[in-house]
Amino acid sequence: MTLARLSGATLGYGAGAVLSDLSLTLDPGERLVLLGRSGVGKTTLLAHLHDQMTGAGQRVALVPQDHALVPQLSVLRNVLMGRLDDHGALYNLRSFIAPRARQRAEVTALLADLALEGLADRPVAALSGGQKQRVALARGLYRGGTVMLGDEPVSAVDETQGPLLMDLIAARFATAVVALHDVGLARRFGTRLLGLRDGRILFDAAPGAVEDAQMAALYAD
């Protein structure tokens, strides 16, 4: 079963095309990494995939580049937002006022996996950039689903944490599409690498089939 499909698609905002004649499929079990310079269209492609898959009724965990957190709320409540659409308004209101013991236990265990121990009740506004990014990742992991879509989900953490967090994503989601800027991490995590340049796909292949020269051409001036 194919989870997403594009055939000759043109994607962009308003009248401006960011990506043209784009064709690809996403199958279960694939970890697709989007590579390319800033502004090439990785975020646009992720947004389109999100709309397509959620429109088809698939459960998608999203980790946006801007985190999309509520700074005044605690870490715990921001993570709980990952499942807001699972329940009605009254259930969600009660959870936000007084989170259930089961919810707190689930989120606390997840925060420990992300090196955020002891921060469940801290306002997001008081966190560092790297901590905020991990809270956004925690919300996506807490949501769960068929596939995770991540837009630079580990860009604000150090080179030691990055691989560990990507391993956590791989362990929780059989299928993922992520935009990364770290080529080494992309080769380590992905089963497919999709290189974007000048509005088109430069390569779409397994990591071992992408040569260093192809990768260099992706970022060359």
TrEMBL record:
SUPFAM superfamilies, per database record: P-loop containing nucleoside triphosphate hydrolases
Key words, A-Z: ATP-binding, Nucleotide-binding
Superkingdom in the source lineage: Bacteria
Keyword Cytoplasm attached: no
Signal peptide segment: none
GO cellular component annotations of the record: plasma membrane
Recorded GO MF terms: ATP binding; ATP hydrolysis activity; transmembrane transporter activity
Membrane-spanning intervals of the chain: none
InterPro entries, per the entry: AAA+_ATPase, ABC_transporter-like_ATP-bd, ABC_transporter-like_CS, ABC_transpr_LolD-like, P-loop_NTPase
Domain ABC transporter: 4-220
One Pfam family from the record: ABC_tran
PANTHER family for the chain: FE(3+) IONS IMPORT ATP-BINDING PROTEIN FBPC, IMPORT ATP-BINDING PROTEIN
Name of the protein in question: Phosphonate transport system ATP-binding protein
